[in-house]
Amino acid sequence: MRHILFALITLFAFSCNSVTERKNRQTTLTSYDSLLAKQYGADDYGMKQYVVAFLKRGPNRNMDSVETERLQKAHLKNIVRLGKEGKLICAGPFLDDGDIRGIYIFNVKTIEEAQKLTQTDPAIQKGSLIMELHPWYGSAALMAIQEIHPTIEKKNVTE
User: What's domain 40-152's superfamily in CATH?
Assistant: First the structure.
């Protein structure tokens, strides 16, 4: 009986602690932080301008499996490099087999800047992908992805 009572008290203490931690995190996260807003380039609405790129199937897709794998590794290496430079905030493939293969969110304000960055992608250079670029207004909190992602990434995409 004492063991059951001890287990229930322990469980209650841990659950209260979790609730308190969640409330503290929520309070911290919902309080305006002018320094963080400035660091992320946020306007008064917590937003900023980016350029979104839709990666689409290009005209040059007839490659053998060895060349396709080599090009994919070079493509991923370029994505990682742009991310480390702070120019690429988010990238990822679409999971269907449509003509739009993936998405980039560039931390730049103009299509011209994004166009220069897209030209560094080996898949663009080879013509297996083409980019469709659009100015986009989104949450400046996306800037935190570069800080958070490494803490949840067990394997690096270039491994």
Answer: Dimeric alpha+beta barrel (3.30.70.1060)
Rg (CA), the chain: 22
Using DSSP bridges, classify how beta strands 47-57 and 88-93 pair: parallel, antiparallel or unpaired: unpaired
Give dist(CA 63, CA 82) in Å, integer: 25
Rounded CA gap, 37 and 35, in Å? 5
Positive or negative torsion for Cα 96, 69, 114, 42: positive
Strand partners, 99: none
Is 109:49 a contact under the CB 8 Å cutoff? yes
CA 24 to chain CA centroid, Å, is 26
What is the band of 64 on the pLDDT scale with cuts at 50, 70, 90?
A: confident
The number of residues in the chain equals 159
Give residues with Cβ within 8 angstroms of 118, minimum separation 6. 53, 104, 124, 131, 133
For 106-142, write each residue's pLDDT tens digit: 999 999 999 999 999 999 999 999 999 999 999 999 9
| pTM (2 d.p.) | 0.76
